[in-house]
Amino acid sequence: PETGCLSIIVLGASGDLAKKKTFPALFHLYCQGFLPPDEVHIFGYARTKISDDDLRNRIRGYLVNDRSASPSEEVSKFLQLIKYVSGSYDGAEGFQLLDKEITKLEISKSSQEGSSRRLFYLALPPSVYPSVCRMIRKYCMNKSDLGGWTRIVVEKPFGKDLDSAEQLSSQIGELFDEPQIYRIDHYLGKELVQNLLVLRFANRFFLPLWNRDNIDNVQIVFREDFGTEGRGGYFDEYGIIRDIIQNHLLQVLCLVAMEKPVSLKPEHIRDEKVKVLQSVLPIKDEEVVLGQYEGYRDDPTVPNHSNTPTFATVILRIHNERWEGVPFILKAGKALNSRKAEIRVQFKDVPGDIFKCQKQGRNEFVIRLQPSEAMYMKLTVKQPGLEMSTVQSELDLSYRQRYQGVTIPEAYERLILDTIRGDQQHFVRRDELKAAWEIFTPLLHRIDNGEMKPIPYRTGSRGPAEADELSAKAGYVQTHGY
Ligand code: BG6
After folding, report:
1. What's the ipTM?
2. Alpha carbon distance 448, 456 (integer Å)
3. CA-to-CA distance for 387 and 371, rounded, in angstroms?
4. C-beta separation of 425 from 266 below 8 A
5. How large is the greatest C-alpha to C-alpha distance in the chain, in angstroms?
6. Ligand 1 centre and the CA of 387: distance in Å?
7. Sign of torsion, CA 385 386 390 395?
8. In the β-sheet with 311-317, what is the strand arrangement from edge to edge?
9. How far apart are CA 100 and CA 116, in angstroms?
10. Low-confidence ranges of the chain (pLDDT < 70)
11. Distance of alpha carbon 199 from alpha carbon 202, whole angstroms
């Protein structure tokens, strides 16, 4: 591993993302020894003029350590690593000061004899990415003669459509090289999303079955049982497709559908993901259902006549040898009846079925990303007893039972560690981002222009009934468990 001073700079330090995700993830890494205090400094940077202690107090409440015997002691030690610098996002002064502070600490640790590593985490709205990147490039790059690096981490939304995303990519691309840019999609840090590659390519079971000959349809579903909760202003500008489907669900689709990469090198994996995206056919209007939950517009930050979907079902079709004719049903919604994210691979009926088992349901392989990570296979077995009748049952691998005592890391924790280690496998490459926007931009423009309207649905329901009808039309058959 690299040695020398590591400075982690969280820009937008007083914002929601930093408080709820970035600092807690850093804390967990610290507790596990990945951020040794003699090498690491953490800086918060934002416009508000507050002291180091003010920032520490603001984030203290979000640092929960259920893995340590004396959590409060750990919290205090971690907070001592954090310093705060205030400044604007487009002026030289703040960034010069930030550079001075980082350099000062780097020099004080120079006995370490190592390179200097600077990781800038932009927990900021994308509108300020270009100016912030310009300032970092101009004033805050690693200058150590002993080597090291400067990396930046950016969060979605990366633009609002193809043009704006490309513009953003070019602006950042003029300042940093691709290996320095880490575009986070936190779904790629989830345990069961990371497991997809292993599952598909390390198991003989799946290799021959994973194609159009055997699979009837694939559903990738995201449900939340709460609404926009104070984020109405942000959400209304983006909507569920930009918030969840174009990034999180599409990334999952890539891993479900891609061909075997040449090796595990990040570029090989990302090459295969891009190919999937480039093979997606244009979305048809009749294969889209949009919804908006009743009460969404009561949020004072949401305009009274908002046309923004809080729910969408979109069918994607991949035009290649493996997937021709297999619908990928992507479904996401807020304020629904449950909180769940899962992949549901439904197999075709058994040809010449002598048991009439299809009456009970098809074979299905379900990968539940959250809550309670699990994988299970729905299959038909003989009903135990004297009669020769069949019943649908499950082969079940529930992580909580199977891996008792193993803590599953948070997505952000894993991804931040990857940025420190320089592993880009679980980050979105520029051409992937472009291909993802190419798929959804025409549909998004039609929605933005009011050509497609969301159907109202009740809070706490399954979403519009039309969505279930669309899935059924695409071939999905509701199965019944035991
Ligand atoms: C974020 C979205 O990217 O993902 C939120 O902006 C959503 O709207 C969140 O709530 C869901 O993440 P998770 O990890 O809780 O499924």
Report:
1. 0.96
2. 17
3. 37
4. yes
5. 82
6. 48
7. positive
8. 390-398, 374-382, 364-370, 340-347, 215-223, 327-333, 311-317, 288-293, 455-457
9. 14
10. 1, 65-70, 110-114, 357-359, 480-482
11. 6
- Which residues does 325 contact at the CB level (< 8 Å), separation at least 6? 212, 317
Tell me what pLDDT residue 69 has: 62
The pLDDT assigned to 70 comes to 66
* Tens digits of residue pLDDT in 62-107: 997 666 666 788 899 999 999 999 999 999 999 999 999 999 988 8
Q: Is 216 in the pocket of ligand 1 (CB under 6 A)?
A: no
* Residue 416: other Cβ atoms inside 10 A: 26
Ligand 1 centre to CA of 277 (Å) is 22
pLDDT in tens, 279-297: 999 999 999 999 999 999 9
At 482 the pLDDT is 35
CA 169, CA 430: separation in Å to the nearest integer?
7
Q: How confident is the model at residue 116, as a pLDDT? A: 87
Is the Cβ atom of 243 under 6 angstroms away from ligand 1? yes
Residues, the chain: 482
Rounded CA separation 424/182 (Å): 7
End-to-end CA distance of the chain: 50
